[in-house]
Amino acid sequence: MDMFYGLFIAPFADFGFMQRALIGSLMLSLGACPVGVFLMLRRMSLSGDAMAHAILPGAAAGFLLYGLEILPMTIGGLIAGIIVALGAGAVSRFTIQREDASMAAFYLISFAIGVLMVSIRGSSVDLMHVLFGTVLALNNEALALIGGIVAVTLISLAIFWRALVAECLDPLFLRSVSRLGSPVHFIFLGLVVLNLVGGFQALGTLLSVGLMMLPAAAARFWTARVEPMCVLAVLIGFASCIAGLLLSYHASLPSGPAIILSAGVVYFASILFGTRGVLRARIIHHRHRTA
Amino acid sequence: MTNACLTFRDLTLGYNSHPAIHHLNGTIRKGALTAVVGANGSGKSTLMKGIVGVLKPMAGAVIRAPGVRAAYLPQQSELDRSFPARVVDLVSLGLWPRRGLLGRYAREDRDSVSQALMAVGLGGFEKRPIDTLSGGQLQRTLFARVLLQDAGLILLDEPFNAVDSKTVGDLIALIKRWHGEERTIMVVVHDLDLVRQNFPETLLLARQPVAWGETRETLKPENLLRARRFHEAWEENAPWCEPDNHDHTHAHDRDHHHGAGPRAA
C-alpha cells in the first residue's frame, strides 16, 4: 500500500507543480481529444500537425515582444492559427483546390515566417521552448486559460454536435437542408486552433497535436460510434496524462514526450487488442455465422 | 399560375460559364409527378442542384412557392461510408427540418425513423453500421431519409441506379404514395418504359427542354430523335449568349410549354 502511495499518489500530493501539471493536462484532454476524433473522422489527422506548425509565428511574435509570457504568446498563436485555418479553409471551399493542399501551402509559409522570426532575435534554446513547452511550469494564469479553452470547446461541441456529425457524414445533405455547413467547418477549425494553442505551453506546439490525435486514433479501434469514441478518447487522454507525468517524475524524463509516448503505447495496444483491432479480426476471421 | 410549386424564370445553370441548363422557362404544378429524361450531360442533375440551391444560377431564377421545403436525393452522394454511424443515425438526419440543430429527438421521432425504415423494407436495420450495407440497401436507407424529411417537394436524381427490380417496384410504390399525398415530385430516370408506365408528366431535356408535358406526347419518337441529336460537348469557343440571341428561343420554349400546359393542369 505504501509503495502504491509512493508511486502513484505522493508525487501529486506532495508537489504543487505536479498538481497543476495534472489539472492542466487533464483539462486539455477533455477538450482536445473529442476535437481529435472529428479531425480523424474528417481525414484531417495531419491537418492538426500542420496547424501546430502554423501557430509558431504568432507565438514567436508574442515571445519576441513580451518574453516568455503566456498570454501574448497564446493570443499571437491564436491569431496566426486562425489566419491559416480560415485562409486554407476558404481556399478549399471556394476554389478547386482541396483542403490538404491549401493547408500545406498555408502552414509551410506560416512556419517559415515563424522560424525566421525566432532566428532573428532568439537562440535555438528559445525555439525549443516554444516548440516543446513544459507542463511542469504551468502557472495559475495558464491553468485559467486552459480552463476557458476547454469550456468554450465543450460548449461549442454540444451546440454544434448534430451539424458537425452531419457535415462529416453527408455534407451535401446538410447543404440541402441548412446553411450551417460552411460555418460549422470554420467553427471546427477554430476549435482545433484553440486547443492546439491551449496545449502548446503545456506540451509545446508539436506535442499538443499528439494529445489531440493519438487518443482519437486509439479509440477508433474500440467502437463504431462517434459518441463512445469521443468519451473513450478522453479517457485514454486522461490515462496518458497521468502515466506520462508519473513516468516523467520517477524517471526524470521530459513531461511532454512522456505523455505522448504513454498515449502511443495505448495506441499500439489498441491496434493489437482493440475490438476492431488486428488480433480480434484474425480470430473471428475463421468463424462466421449462417446469416 | 397560383398553383405552381416551382417556377423557372429564364434559368441558366452551368459550370465555368458554359451552360448546362440554358434559359429554361416554365412551371411545375403543385402535386405533379414529373420524370426528367435526357441524354448524359443534358442538364438533368444540374437542374436538380439548381432547384435545391446547392448550385447558384448564372442567370435567371428558380422560384419556389413559399413554405415549400425540398428533399433531395443526389445522384452522387457525398456520403462518407467509413464514418462510424448506424443506419438509424443516417436516417435521423432527415429529422433536421423538424428538429433543427438543437431540438431533442422525442420518442415519436424514433418511431417515425423505424416506420420510414419499415416502409423501404429495412425494418430492424436500425443498429447496422452503414459500412455494412449493400449499394441497394444504402439507396433504400436514403429513401427512408427522404421519407422522414416530409417535404412538399421531392427531388430524386437517378434513384434507381444499382437497385434490383423488386426494390425498384417498392420504391415506385413509395413515390406513388407521395404522389397521392399531393407532394410535388421530380425524378431523373433513364428507363423510358418505367417513365411511360409510372410518370404522368415528363420533361425531356437537352440543355434546353426538347419537350415538356404529358408523358406520352413528350416521349414521341420525333422528340426522342431531337433529344438524341443533342451535342453533349462544350464548345470551348462557343459565342457568348447575347440577350437578343435567345429571345426567340424563349418564345419558342414558352410555346412548347404552353402547348403542354392545359393538359398538364
Q: Can you describe this structure?
A:
Chain A: The chain crosses the membrane at residues 20-41, 74-92, 104-122, 142-165, 177-197, 203-222, 229-252, 258-279. Chain A: Its main location: membrane. Chain A: This is ABC transporter, permease protein. Chain A: Keywords: Membrane, Transmembrane, Transmembrane helix, Transport. The complex is a heterodimer of chains A (291) and B (265). Chain A is mainly alpha-helical and 291 residues long. Chain A is 83% helix and 0% strand. Chain A has 14 helices and no strands. In chain A, helix 3 (45-54) packs parallel to helix 6 (99-121). The longest helix of chain A is centred in the middle third of the chain and has 30 residues, at 140-169. The N and C termini of chain A lie far apart (52 Å). With 265 residues, chain B is of the alpha/beta class. Chain B contains ten helices and nine strands. In chain B, the strands form two sheets. A six-stranded mixed β-sheet of chain B has the order 5-6-7-3-8-9, with helices on both faces. A three-stranded antiparallel β-sheet of chain B has the order 2-1-4. Chain B is globular. The A-B interface holds A 41, 159-160, 162-163, 165-166, 168-178, 180, 220, 223-226, 229 and B 52-54, 70-72, 74, 77-80, 83-86, 89-90, 93, 96-97, 100-102, 129, 145, 149.
Question: Radius of gyration of chain B, Cα only, in angstroms?
Answer: 19 Å
Following the backbone from N to C, one meets helices and strands of chain B in this order, namely: EEEHEEHHHHEHEHEEHHH
Biggest sheet: strand arrangement of chain B = 5-6-7-3-8-9
**At CATH's second level, what is the architecture of chain A?**
Orthogonal Bundle
Question: How much helicity do the residues of chain A have?
Answer: over 70%
Question: What labels would you give this structure?
Answer:
heterodimer; A: 291 residues; mainly alpha; ABC transporter involved in vitamin B12 uptake, BtuC; 14 helices; globular; B: alpha/beta; Rossmann fold; 2 domains; six-stranded mixed sheet; three-stranded antiparallel sheet; 10 helices; 39% helix; transmembrane helix (chain A); transport (chain A); membrane (chain A)
